[in-house]
Amino acid sequence: MSAPPVAVIKRLGVFGGSFDPPHRAHVALAETALAQLGLDRLHIIPTGQAWHKRRTLSAPEHRLAMARLAFDGLDRVVVDDRELLRAGPSYTIDTLEALQAENPEAQLYLVIGDDQFAALKSWHRWEAILEIAIICIANRADPVRTQAGFELEKQARHAVLTLQLPLMPVSATDIRLQISSGHASPQGWAPLVPEPVARYIERHRLYVSS
Ligand code: ATP
């Protein structure tokens, strides 16, 4: 399902991730961003083979299908496959520049967890990212920002805000580990992902031997 047309998009959110698999914290983060930032549209962008993740990701078609199952029900959301279609390394700044060109009147909001924010300075053309988008940070397990995160925030004060998301200590890594170590789905990992995603994982036997 794609979001209905909006005359002019003024507030455009961008939420990228490997979504391998998408879990409940991802969905809660998207909902919070839509509400708190008053977004006209939120693009959910499954990454290509992200340059900063060493692990080989699940096939693009699985991650895209799961992202659709997880996010398509949300109003004003588009699951955007552009990074999956891009050959070579996938850089956030390229996506932001493309979205800005497509939506010249929009203010871009980049939604990320604080773990990613702390590493932002290692991202390709990170200064350009701070110039083009307002960074919207969700705290993960630890509410105290890392020193690297604090320093970057001071430097880019005007371009950073915090999302009011309660701490949700869930990660895709943990879910994959639970599945590969044979934990039963009803009690273990399944409640951590949206129900249709759990069914998809089981049907395609994803992560069983990762
Ligand atoms: P993995 O464990 O495989 O690294 P992940 O759970 O971190 O995956 P990603 O798809 O890499 O999920 O995350 C996409 C974005 O969502 C990142 O910006 C990440 O920081 C953020 N995010 C993921 N999980 C949470 C969470 N529990 N709370 C807040 N933000 C989160």
Short précis:
The chain is of the alpha/beta class. It has nine helices and six strands, in the order E-H-E-H-E-H-H-E-H-H-E-H-E-H-H. The mean pLDDT is 89.
Write structural notes for this entry.
With about 210 residues, this protein is α/β, with parallel strands linked by helices. Helices cover about 40% and strands about 15% of the residues. The protein is built from nine helices and six strands, in the order βαβαβααβααβαβαα. It has a six-stranded parallel sheet with strand order 3-2-1-4-5-6, sandwiched between helices. Helix 2 packs antiparallel against helix 9 and helix 4 packs parallel to helix 6 (about 125-130). The chain is globular. The model has no long low-confidence stretch (mean pLDDT about 90). Adenosine-5'-triphosphate binds near residues 19, 113, 168 and 172.
How many helices in DSSP terms?
9
CATH superfamily, by name, is: HUPs
Q: Which kinds of small molecule does this entry bind, naming each only once? A: adenosine-5'-triphosphate
Helix content: 25-40%
Strand content: 15-25%
What's the SSE pattern?
EHEHEHHEHHEHEHH
Within the CATH hierarchy, at the fold level, what is the topology?
Rossmann fold
The secondary-structure class comes to: alpha/beta
| Sequence stretches where pLDDT stays below 50 over 5 or more residues | none
Principal-axis shape equals globular
What's the number of extended β-strand segments?
6
